[in-house]
Amino acid sequence: MASLGPLAHPAVFPWLCLAMGLCVGSFLNVVIYRLPKIMQRDWECQCAELRGEKPVEQETFNLARPRSRCPACAKPITVLQNIPVASYLALGGKCAACKARISPRYPLVETLTGLASAYAAWHFGFGLSAFAAMAFIWCMIALAFIDFDTQLLPDAITLPLLWAGLMLNLSGTFADLGSAVVGAAAGYLSLWSVYWGFRMLTGKEGMGFGDFKLLAAIGGWLGWQMLPLVVLASSLVGAIVGISLMLFAKHGRDVPIPFGPYLAVAGTVALFWGKPLTHAYLKML
């Protein structure tokens, strides 16, 4: 630990985590784009097997292969062109080969991940809490953007996140173990109850099962005490955004709006400021 002294200094650690977060953000862009496609391929293979058909041979496609490439001209992206944020600015937001426009969301995800990681390092200080908080935030960012794009919250992220939260809280990292277990159960069952209540009254599905698992994971990380804040904040933001879309973007009432991004934002807020916000809310009451 003595050799880590300079790296753990409060004036150094956040900057290191900023750099690490930028790199992780670049990887999260890959996860956000590829994981839904990997899931789609798996579903197609399973359906083919159930029909007694042989799955169609396809190019290897996972988070590591093939190499990242331009979606317009399919030219592989070099290492220098993959430097977070800097390469986007140097290229002027365009592919080096075909000059096709690169979505600004790529540097946005990288910047968001880097800044959030640096803030977690500054907020918690060097130690397990900071690294755990960063992992939580990375998962929230990936889930929010995947849900926004596809209305999916992959089990490949939500379920490991849930179990990781419970394991971390064996030592009370963010909540005592009892609060974490109750938080995981209450998080799942609360939205599960809302889902079935809404379905019985309207005959429609108001949300997906991934939302249950995400709130269970948040409860497992932060404890049941944070769930009212998370549900209230996510519902409030979701309602404001939904009404705004209907009024200003002519978003139809029957067009579903993903709830996962609002849960992710509310969970991140609760991670950093949950206790003072909850105390202030209870004091007002």
Write the layout of secondary structure elements.
Layout lengths: L4 H4 L4 H38 L35 H5 L14 H20 L3 H23 L4 H14 L8 H26 L6 H14 L4 H22 L11 H25 L1
- Rg result: 21 Å
Unreliable runs:
none
> What oligomeric state do these chains adopt?
single chain
Largest sheet: none
Ends: how far apart?
Answer: 46 Å
Return the structural class.
Answer: mainly alpha
Strand content is: under 5%
Shape, per Cα inertia axes: globular
Q: Which range best describes the helical content: under 10%, 10-25%, 25-40%, 40-55%, 55-70% or over 70%?
A: 55-70%
What count of helical segments does DSSP give? 10
**Total beta strand runs:** 0
User: How do the SSEs run, as a string of H and E?
Assistant: HHHHHHHHHH
Mean pLDDT: 89
Q: If you had to describe this structure to a student in words, what would you say it looks like?
A:
The chain has 285 residues and is mostly helical. It contains ten helices and no strands. Helix 4 runs antiparallel to helix 5. The longest helix has 38 residues. It is globular, with a radius of gyration of 21 Å. It starts with a helix and ends with a helix.
